[in-house]
Design brief:
The protein is α+β, with helices and mostly antiparallel strands and about 325 residues long. It contains eight helices and 17 strands.
């Protein structure tokens, strides 16, 4: 047994704000393969294929005021992703729902972001899933405000193209997010809030973790699901739009369509609904939140406040 560290100077410093946030998260309870463990003690094997190859799936879910928003829709998408990659699910949808509720209650979280993750599990090195012994499930829940706040954001079109639909289907919410991460790195380098991603043909797909919408002459449009993730918030926005504005159109969207739009906004579970004020240095309309976007934000906030699976009785 080796007692001394092989490389003694690998304890790199962590900036104080990050260290504090990690401390808070290490204190939370995590559901891990059927047990509740503290975040500081929760660990997966270094041989887990989710870590080694990104072989797994996940969801992002929100709870508002003790109500889980669109839980059934998120679990349905999780199980669709599992079927698409032939990943054995060790829990039923009902058991997943119960585990999510138990995680929220263990942490007394009434407003939070929930992340259920399923990996292919530990196994011998190699891409073949038959080398793994079982799937692994973890459910993380933590307080998390909307990603961008409520002010209009600045987007940069990334040079990195979305891998879907030429390889991985955009409908699969997998752990393979390196193309999105590289796009995010580009937006960071140019001081933008997020990156806009295009498909191999040059049409707009989505931001790195949000779907995108535009308004032109009173018409609401969003890219078709050729390469984009079928976002739960995207579907909610479409339903609210039909109810309030009559219709929403799914179609091919070009960068010029966005540049010349009357309003642009992004929508996702983590970001909720937020206006886009600038794309590639071009101010969208007056750069402020438009009237239709503001109406949809209002409708969305009311919906999440009054609907969903109740976790706490009071």
């Amino acid at each position: 047994m080796i007692d001394e560290p092989i490389v003694p100077d690998m304890n790199w410093p962590i900036t104080p704000p990050l260290a504090e946030s990690l401390k808070d998260m290490f204190d939370l309870w995590v559901f891990l393969d059927g047990r509740m463990v503290k975040g500081a003690d929760a660990s997966v094997s270094v041989w887990d294929h989710g870590l080694l190859y990104g072989d797994g799936i996940y969801e992002g879910i929100r709870v508002y005021g003790g109500r889980i928003f669109k839980l059934e829709a998120h679990l349905a998408r999780l199980f669709d992703s599992a079927r698409a990659i032939q990943l054995a699910m060790p829990l039923t949808p009902e058991q997943f729902a119960g585990a999510i509720i138990a995680t929220l209650r263990a942490n007394n979280l009434k407003d939070a972001h929930i992340r259920p993750v399923v990996t292919r599990g530990p196994g011998k090195p190699g891409l073949d899933p038959r080398r793994t012994i079982r799937s692994s499930v973890m459910i993380l829940a933590s307080a998390a405000p909307p990603t961008f706040g409520d002010k209009p954001v600045r987007l940069l079109t990334a040079a990195i193209r979305r891998k879907a639909p030429l390889s991985i289907d955009g409908r699969i919410k997998s752990l393979n997010y390196l193309d999105n991460i590289m796009a995010k790195l580009q937006s960071n380098a140019f001081g933008a809030d997020d990156a806009l991603m295009l498909d191999p043909s040059g049409f707009v797909v989505e931001a790195t973790a949000s779907n995108i919408f535009l308004v032109k002459n009173g018409k609401l449009m969003t890219p078709a699901l050729t390469a984009a993730l079928p976002g739960i918030t995207r579907q909610v926005v479409m339903e609210l739009s039909v109810k309030r504005f009559g219709a929403v159109f799914e179609q091919s969207v070009s960068l010029s369509d966005l540049y010349t739009a009357d309003e642009v906004f992004i929508a996702g579970t983590a970001s909720e609904i937020v206006a886009v004020g600038e794309i590639d240095g071009r101010i969208i309309a007056d750069g402020k939140t438009g009237l239709i976007t503001a109406d949809l934000q209002k409708d969305y906030k009311e919906l999440v406040r009054t609907s969903g699976n109740l976790v706490f009785d009071s």
